[in-house]
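Hey team,

Filing this mostly as a record. A colleague (T.K.) asked me to run one chain through the structure pipeline before their review meeting, and I want the input and output archived in the tracker in case anyone asks later how it was produced. No errors, nothing strange. Just documentation.

Input sequence:
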Amino acid sequence: MPDSDRNRSWLGKLKNRLGVAGYPAMRIVALAETGTRGLPGAVIGGKGERAEVPLARKLVPLLREGMLLLADRAYDAADLLTEVAATGARFLVRGSASRKPAVVEVLPDGSYLSRVDGLRVRIIEADLDVHGADGTRIGDSYRLITTLLDWRRYPAGELIRLYHERWVRHEVAWSEWNSQKEGRLMSVT
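Output structure:
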């Protein structure tokens, strides 16, 4: 964002341990359609609205039965997941590392049923390995939380692949949206 009095008045500047950022910054939370790359909704946080979950909560009314929400670990707040499920939409969300849900029942595909804030969910533990051309390997483990409870209809391996595909499509869509719209939609002076 350009560093203007007007932008600073409603966005402020980010503060961190090194001081104040050089430019005003905004937090944008968007609901994007993976297949069409459409943008059904977005919320721009102003000064004091930097947290992702409260902004995402404003987009929940756009969800409907038959939709599947794919989201990153920043959005695994129990009350937000409960609100999403109440719309009839299903979700597949990466859980934060600090979330350690209790095992209620282990399923044959290695996933397990659990509860998050009273909501019945399925947990899928996954490992991610990235191998570089130079032979380096980076590995990470993550936990997916979903309301897709039927392990036969929605095998764990398929949901892991779907979640990974989300990132590929999301990054392409976001880059495309940014490059096409930045001058008209993002610039506030």
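Quick notes for T.K.: The first strand starts at residue 13 and ends at 16. The longest helix spans residues 156-186.
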